Amino acid sequence: MKEELIRIKIDAKNHIALWKRTTEKCLDNKHILFTHGTFSSRKVFNAITDFLTNQGFTCWVFEWRNHGDSSKMKHLFNFETIGKEDFKLIFNYLFDEVKIEKLSCITHSGGGICLTIALINYPKFKSKINCITMFACQGFGAAVSTSNYIKICMSRLGSKLLGYTPAKALGRETNETYYLMKQWFDWNLTGRFYGENGINYQSQMPDIKTPIFSIYGKGDTFVAPKEGCELFLSSFDNPLNKALFCSKAAGFLEDYNHSRVLHSRSASKEIYPFVLDWLDKNKTKKK
After folding, report:
1. Contact predicate 106/32, CB 8 Å
2. Left, alpha or beta for 23 (phi > 0: left; psi -120 to 50: alpha)?
3. Radius of gyration of the chain (CA)
4. Residue 125 phi/psi, 5° resolution?
5. What are phi and psi of 105, to 5 degrees?
6. pTM
7. 15 CA to centre of own chain
8. Cα distance between residue 52 and residue 31, in whole Å
9. Cα dihedral sign for 158, 160, 162, 163?
10. In what order do the strands lie in the sheet with 103-108?
11. How is the chain classified by DSSP, letter by letter?
C-alpha cells in the first residue's frame, strides 16, 4: 500500500487533506472518492480502502476542515460549508488537475449529506460520478420515536450549552461545534432539509440521478435508523437506487451499528463484497 498526502488549498494559510491510497494493482480508470462524517477522519475508511485498492481502485480520501490532517481553522463552518466549499475544491482538483474523467463516491454518515448538498449546488459534477455508496446516511429522519425525539432535543441543548458536542462521549476523534451540529439537530427535529438561504434540499434530491447504494444496520437506532435511511434514499426518487439492511434476521453476522456497518471484521467479510459488486455494475466503461 502506498499512501500520499495532497494538500488542497482553502486559502493562503489553510488546506484540506486529500489522501491518495494505491497499490500496484490499481488501474487508470478506477477511482473512488471517500468522505467521512462528523467526529471522524480518514481512519474510518482504512479497512475498505485496503480492500478496494487490492481490487484495482485508486482510493482518494478527503478529510473535512478541522479533521484529521486538514487545517484547524478558527472560523465556524457547517454541513453546507463542506458541501459547497470543500467538495468543490476536491472535485475541481480531481477532475481539472488530475484529469480523472469519472469516479465513484463512498461516504459515511454526514459525508453523504454533504455530498448531496454539493451535487445540488454544483449539478455539473453529477455526470462525473458513476455511482454512490452511502453507509449509515440519513439527514432528516432520526426522530422515528418519542424517545429519539427527546434524545435529539437533549443533545441539542447540551451541545448549545457547551458550544460543542464532545467526541469522547461518543467514542470518536473530533469534537463538533454546536454551529455545525445545530443543522443536523434541526433537520431531524423538524423533518425539513433546508439550507441557510432557504433552499429546500429534499425537493431537489430527485434531480440527482446518479445510482445510490444505501447500506445501514439494525443496531443503528439513533444516528441513522432504518426508517431515516429509507426516507433519505427514497427522497432521491430513482428506481436505480438500492438498499441493504444489515441484520441477523436478514442473514448477516450481526445487527450492525453506526460504525461497525463500515469498519469491522464482519463488514469486511460480508458487506464489502456487496460494495464491490455495486461498483463493478456501475463502472467507468473503457473507450
Report:
1. yes
2. beta
3. 18
4. -85, -15
5. -125, 140
6. 0.96
7. 20
8. 10
9. positive
10. 2-9, 15-22, 58-63, 31-35, 103-108, 129-135, 212-217, 242-246
11. -EEEEEEEESSSS-EEEEEEEE-TT--TT-EEEEE--TT--GGGGHHHHHHHHTTT-EEEEEE-TTSTTS---SS---HHHIIIIIHHHHHHIIIIIS----EEEEEETHHHHHHHHHHHH-GGGGGGEEEEEEES--SS----SHHHHHHHHHHHHHHHHHSEE-SGGGT-S--EEHHHHHHHHHHHHHT--B-TTS-BHHHHGGG--S-EEEEEETT--SSS-HHHHHHHHHTT--TT-EEEEE-GGGT-SS---TTTTTSSHHHHHHTHHHHHHHHHHTPPPP-
> Does residue 136 come out as left (phi exceeding 0), alpha (psi in the -120 to 50 range) or beta?
left
Grid cell, residue 98, equals 488530475
Residue 137 one-letter amino acid: C
Query: Is the Cβ–Cβ distance between 272 and 51 less than 8 Å?
Result: yes
> Which amino acid makes up residue 287?
K
pLDDT, one tens digit per residue, over 200-254 is 999 999 999 999 999 999 999 999 999 999 999 999 999 999 999 999 999 999 9
Residue 104's alpha-carbon distances to 33, 57, 100, 200, 266, in angstroms, are 6, 10, 11, 25, 24
| Cβ atoms 83, 183 nearer than 8 A | no
Q: CA-to-CA distance for 46 and 15, rounded, in angstroms?
A: 22
Rounded-to-integer distance, Cα 154 and Cα 99, Å: 47
**Residue carrying C-alpha cell 487508470:** 28
Report the length, in residues, of the chain: 287
- What does the CA dihedral 29, 268, 86, 170 come to, rounded to 10 degrees? 180
For each of the domains in the chain, give its residue range(s) and CATH number, in order of start: 2-140+203-281 (3.40.50.1820)
- Residues 78-129: tens digit of each pLDDT: 999 999 999 999 999 999 999 999 999 999 999 999 999 999 999 999 999 9
